[in-house]
Amino acid sequence: MIAARLIPHDPFSEKASKAVASKSKSNASDGSSPSNKTVQTSDDRTPEQRRAQEWRIAAGRETTEAFVVAFILALLFRAFLAEAFVIPTGSMAPTLMGAHKDVFCDACEYNFRVGASRENSAGGEGVTVVGGVCPNCRRVNALDLAGETNHATFNGDRILVNKFSYVLSEPERWEVIVFKYPGNPKQNYIKRLVGLPGETLTLRHGDVYVRPTGSDQRSQIVRKPYSTLMAMSHLVHDTDYVPEPLNQAGFPSRWQPWTEGAEKPPTDSWQISREGGRFTASLKADDVAGDTTQWLRYFHHVPTDQQWQIASNGGSLNDVDPYQSKAITDFYAYDSYIFVPSGAVYASKPFGLRQKLLGETSGVTFNPTYQSGESLDQFGQMAVWGGQDSNREKIGRDGMHWVGDLILQTKIETDSDAKQMTLELIEAGVQYRCTIDLASGEATLGIMGDEAHRFDPAEGSSEANLSPTAETPIRAGQSHQISFSNCDDQLLLVVDENPIAFQTPTTFDSRTYRGNSANHPRYSAANPLDAAPAGVGVTGGEATIESLQLLRDKYYISTNTGKFGEICDYDMSRYRELTGRQGAFKRIQDSLASPQQWDEFVGWDIRRETTFELQEDQFFPMGDNSPESLDARCWAGVKDRIKMPGDVNRDAWRWSDESYVPRDLLVGRAVVVFWPHSWNSPVPFIPNFKRMKLIR
């Protein structure tokens, strides 16, 4: 940072004023010709008045100079230090928002955003986004475009980019970078840096592996720092947001008491309450059976449209199986946008200043058949659900890939008699556990499948690392906020926002016990495994849980094409060949939604692994919104190059068919969201302060 210190000075001292006046009088009386001499008129002002005038002139000049200097400094600041950008599209959602709708779910009140950049890409007149799907309760929210100004389309986040970052230091993995798009160097792109120079990068089952380019070393998974992991995570379910219509209808909670072999929740275990829209799970003394662990497990059952209709009409859903479940997928709320031709909503749609800034509907004529805020069934087959819903099958309702990397967060209090707490996450039938002794606070990690699996050994040690341990502040009779994650082949424990350091590594290589064909969700009637992939257990005492959140990690789709309908891990031509079926995307989603079909699903064996080689000064960026990001995976040869003027530097386009960004095209590092969108009501222009943040 450069600070300029301005030292005030007065060039018009009284002495200088007298000298000027004396010289003026001499020139006026020497008889010179008017053509060569200045005729000096008499000045009746007092010295104080003359000095004041001179001060005003000097001040005006210095003010002008200050503005000029500030303007020049601003240009230099923009050119060399920092620059503001507006995010136009959703390729970095949910980290950074492009044009979008900001929605509060009308059932559970969870605040989420859905993409609306297609409105802009269609010229603002071709299509209109009319709804989206809540990621928490999966309610389809119809937008009230006629009555709610905050359902207008908001511009993308405004961010500040440090253009000096990579002058002094090397770009680091997981940083959000801005660069010139190799297919059109006049256009800036923003993505997350994933691959570094000299690496060969492989995308496999949602994870990223690297090895040195040119070597035959076994590739290693790359892991996100905890802060980055959380910034990139996606909500699966949050008990703090209870959908009241489902609650009133008796739709079962996703968290249920469970014991092995049970066909229905036991009554002598955890008791679930959702009264007043507040979730609590309580384990009372009468339900504590000696040293038996009482389990509370998550079942990923999502209400269907029919069940939502019954609940909305005041019907009963008490007969829904509480143990019903489906696979957790790479569902993106941002990509659940539902759009229709604009003519189905508007008869005329003027875009004046007030409509753009405030979302006002004055002067807008709506189609008489449009029922603002009502069911989207009114649009029939006109509605498209998400970017890949080419066959109008509502593909945007769910994801296409199973995600096993999960993060469990809970606020839990135990009584003084409790002996042990256990947190469990299941991936591909393997149990990843954290067991906490509530007398000593010692936490022990374990990986249990058909046998106990090893963590990576400590550096320089040949001893098997089966059970990493650590000291924690957790004790019986206390309340704590706990986070336990299994992401990127690493277990992490965080207590009251403080990461816990274990004595030996908590990393592992799941490929040693879970090959390609075995890397898929598992289910049995006796133990639901991946159909109930998260659990909290307490042994020996009472406990109360006030909140539970389940999140998932990012899933990077393995592809090298941007062809519509091919942005998925599956070899779709092979899938159609094996099944003889069309409408493949919807059938894949149906298979993921049925645990009984998991073992027979042909998609597991036709998932692609894609590899990219990077040489010196070559960087590999990808968007956080993997299904809808044009990035280094798939931009080579996909986007038409713009026609170049005759005087353009053609060398600037020489990387347009490469799957990397050269160092020469790096612009800088994205630092902060300094101005997200402003709300239209109740007070216009009030920014969405909650989204002002450092970019991680």
Structural account:
The protein has 696 residues and is α+β, with helices and mostly antiparallel strands. Among the domains are: 54 residues, no CATH class; 160 residues, Umud Fragment, subunit A (Ribbon); 217 residues, Jelly Rolls (Sandwich). Helix content is 15%, strand content 27%. The strands form 8 sheets. Strands 1, 6, 7, 8, 32, 33, 34 and 37 form an 8-stranded antiparallel sheet that branches. Strands 12, 14, 15, 21, 26, 27, 28 and 30 form an 8-stranded antiparallel sheet that branches. The protein has a 7-stranded antiparallel sheet with strand order 13-16-29-22-23-24-25, with no helix packed on it. The protein is globular and about 95 Å long. The two termini are 22 Å apart. Its EC number is 3.4.21.89. One of its GO terms (molecular function) is signal peptidase activity. It comes from Rubripirellula obstinata. This is Signal peptidase I. Belongs to the peptidase S26 family.
Sum this structure up briefly.
The chain is an alpha+beta fold and 696 residues long. Among the domains are: 1-19 and 47-81, no CATH class; 158-233 and 555-569 and 607-675, Umud Fragment, subunit A (Ribbon); 236-301 and 402-552, Sandwich (Jelly Rolls). A hairpin with a 6-residue loop joins strand 2 and strand 3 (111-115).
| Major beta sheet summary | 8 strands, antiparallel
Which percent bin holds the helix content? 10-25%
CATH architecture annotation of the domain at 236-301 and 402-552: Sandwich
Our Rg estimate from Cα atoms comes to: 32 Å
Number of helix segments?
10
Fold-level CATH name of the domain at 236-301 and 402-552:
Jelly Rolls
The end-to-end span amounts to 22 Å
What is the CATH class name of the domain at 236-301 and 402-552? Answer: Mainly Beta
Average predicted local confidence, pLDDT: 85
